Amino acid sequence: MKRFLSFLADERGAVTVDWVVLTGALIALTIAMFTVLTEAIYVEAGQEMADRISQASNVTLGN
Asked: Which residue range is the domain that position 40 belongs to?
């Protein structure tokens, strides 16, 4: 029992755990931002293409 309590009180690996948790949170935040921004960019690009197509005039080639 004393050995188990000693293990619980030991803090030698606490800094490593902190860095792992912080790195995981940073990666999750980056993925979430990338997902939101990518969707917004595609929506904006699609709207821009639709606007340009609707404003385009018909051009007859040839005679």
From this structure: 18-51
